[in-house]
Design goal:
The protein has about 290 residues and is mainly α. It contains 14 helices and 5 strands.
């Protein structure tokens, strides 16, 4: 199950797990980190008491993680859950993590340590300029504000000698191993939920949480809101401006997630409009999943 931030994936995954005897495996590049449960909207202790959650809040803030590592850990969790007669339910908004499972990872040339080191040392602006020079279409296909994505794209283009889009097309076909769905919501409904979620984070103490996260690596520091709250703590912006910036950044991220869900998976969409009750959402999700034959 995937979809944009704020769509209601976590609540539906828990309801689904309770109905079918399942356990949730997270598929979120930021919820993997321990130390930022509020900022990354991890399942609460009460929710975890209802349904076991895996690959959530398990990684040190200083560590890095990627799709290959995720796929290895997720398959380990899937086999463990199934061995106990339970149903694994993957839920999260990091499409690349899920596609590593549904399609497998594309074959890439062997890493060049010297090349990676030189790219890593580049300022973001220089890496983006180099990427644009080698592959003019590539910047439009990635999040150019994300240094890791820009540098990785440049590395792939330089290693393969091919445009990024061509390398991405080398993904194998969907292996048909999973049933799935993409949650969506109408734009205003989603925006309202995102704003409410940000308010709830502040009410729950997210500012203090970020303040205490003093040893944070590049991966965890990219969590939406981390930079903005640091600016608030340093007196550079007001709380109102901080909240507004977080809502806007989350909306931009949600838009990219929706695009990925529509273009990278063959799963059917389920639009949870504002009036959809939890019971109706669960029923609709089950109907979609039951119609698929992995």
């Amino acid at each position: 199950m995937t979809g944009p931030t704020g769509a209601g994936k976590s609540a539906l995954a828990i309801a689904l797990a309770l109905r079918v005897g399942g356990e949730v495996i997270g598929a979120d590049a930021f919820q993997i980190y321990a130390g930022l449960p509020i900022l990354t909207a991890q399942a609460t202790e009460d929710q975890r008491a209802l349904v076991p959650h895996h690959l959530v809040g398990f990684l040190d803030l200083r560590q890095g993680f990627d799709a290959a590592m995720y796929a290895k850990e997720a398959w380990r969790c899937i086999r463990d859950i199934q061995s106990r007669g339970r149903v694994p339910i993957l839920a999260g908004g990091t499409g690349l993590y899920l596609k590593a499972l549904t399609h497998g990872l594309a074959e890439m040339p062997k890493a060049d340590v010297d090349l990676r080191a030189s790219i890593t040392a580049m300022p973001l602006e220089d890496a983006l300029a180099a990427l644009s020079d080698k592959d003019p279409a590539a910047p439009a296909a990635i999040d150019i504000r994300n240094p890791v994505r820009v540098r990785r794209a440049l590395e792939i283009v330089l290693l393969t000698g091919r445009p990024l889009a061509e390398s991405r097309s080398a993904w194998s076909e969907d292996k048909g191993l999973f049933r799935g769905l993409v949650l969506t919501r109408d734009r205003e409904d989603l925006r309202s939920r995102i704003a409410a979620n940000v308010d709830a984070m502040f009410a729950s103490g997210v500012v203090e949480e970020v303040k205490t996260a003093t040893h944070t690596g590049d991966g965890a520091a990219r969590a939406i809101g981390f930079r903005e709250i640091q600016q608030l703590l340093q007196g550079e912006i007001t709380e109102s401006a901080c909240k507004s910036a977080m809502v806007q950044a989350t909306q931009r991220y949600a838009k990219r997630q929706l695009t990925w869900g529509r273009t990278q998976f063959t799963f059917r969409s389920l639009n949870l409009i504002g009036s959809t009750t939890p019971e109706a959402a669960l029923s609709a999700a089950l109907d979609i999943l039951d119609s698929q034959t992995p």
